[in-house]
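Worked Example 4.2. Consider the chain below.
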Amino acid sequence: MKWEIIVELKGHHNEVTSARFFDDGKRIISGSSDGTIRIWDATSGEPIGVPCTLHDVGVFRVSLSPNGELVASSSIDGTIWLWNLKDFLAQKSPYPYGSIKHGTSLVNSLAFTVDGQKLLSTSEDHTVRLWDEPKLLFWLPPHYRPTFVWGRCKRLIGAEATELDFSRFKYGDQWTECRTDAVA
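Applying the procedure from the previous section yields the following structure tokens:
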């Protein structure tokens, strides 16, 4: 049996280190040592959207959650980014959920559990780590997210900043105390 090339994906500027099909077989996601992640049409070979550039150094592995909504990508410095694929493709910002640090060595592999609630990572530091999905601290409606200021960011240029008052914030077993009776 002879395999034939039916499409070639060109666009990365350095070696391609990881690629996989989406479950539907219609798209491909790839990572490169040029620090980018690209999504491709599997039939035409054309890129879909712009390259994802979350990593400061080369991307070594990419993995998709079973529902195809969450992407995990790792780099040679031990950083793993978790990001929302739908928001990225729609060019909504911010699309990353955040990063986790496996260590300081190359992350060799990434794999989600079948339910997408845990992520497995392996590294050249001789470790296998199992990550639990972060729990939601609070929910911010999507239309407020682009103007939400957090931490040391105190000013937003060109828009009115969304600021939250956490002085009466309740969490854990205290969440039932978040409601107060209306003052007459």
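The mean pLDDT is 82. The longest strand covers residues 16-21. Compare this with Example 4.1 before moving on.
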